[in-house]
Hints:
Chain A is α/β, with parallel strands linked by helices. Chain A is about 40% helix and about 20% strand. Chain A has five helices and five strands. Chain A has a five-stranded mixed beta sheet with strand order 2-1-3-4-5. In chain A, helix 1 (about 5-25) packs parallel to helix 5. The longest helix of chain A is centred in the N-terminal third of the chain and has 24 residues, at about 5-25.
Amino acid sequence: MSTLYKQRDDLFFMKLALQEAKRAAEVDEVPIGAVIVKDDEIISKAYNLRETLQDATAHAELLAIRKACEVLGTWRLNGCSLYVTLEPCPMCAGAIILSRVDRVVFGAKDPKGGACGSIVNLPADKRFNHRPEVVEGVMADECGEILTKFFQAKRAEKKPASE
Amino acid sequence: MSTLYKQRDDLFFMKLALQEAKRAAEVDEVPIGAVIVKDDEIISKAYNLRETLQDATAHAELLAIRKACEVLGTWRLNGCSLYVTLEPCPMCAGAIILSRVDRVVFGAKDPKGGACGSIVNLPADKRFNHRPEVVEGVMADECGEILTKFFQAKRAEKKPASE
């Protein structure tokens, strides 16, 4: 596949991940969304549901990986690409390595907890038995903006109405 | 609590984690077991079920954390200790940090994939917003031996009967 086609696909699937992030915001969850794709087909979509499920592991990527395993009937996600609006945390980067996802495309960087270059870089570590390709910065502004707006609204909610 | 009591408790709960690991071996899964404890009460127990569930995320620790969140009705596992027979991988160490488990006690080290000192040391990294206490080496020999025996048996199975 040419680089141009790949870039067009990356934009297309990141837009879907961003739609998932918007769904998270609608249920008052930190807006992060993920999509898993294999052979141009969407295998799974998910968004952060930590508060709704009261499950510390219910990040968009982890839910998308679990769904993809279920859909494909195997824990091996070779040949799959994972699109996610925010840089994966250590748990999700670890799950990406374990599930042997081929390619990870993320939007905004997470300087406070990212495990794909920001704090640590787990997918690049040659000592683990699988190293997915990582592409960063696809629709980074849009992916970051939805988070910024969410937290701004949260802070505004906390302030008394008189202020 | 005195150090002596803590050591006795650690042995007691690690024995339970080892029982979970044995259950994994019984269903032909890599034998790793975990137990989560709060105020001396067992909140959840789990063992590796990756092959059975065909789920890359079905490690003992992750399943135990998800169960504990369900039992306690919250994603915050403050006040909990997690006992696991093998050093947690990056995914599980990440989930431990996210769920704010207070204390992690593990048995055998995992030089090939451990994220609590062997390859990386995620719980010790001050840049993440939670740092659980980690105790290693409790019943390390027993916890390692059950894994060694499992893989020895697997290799023997693969050889033709005539050899």
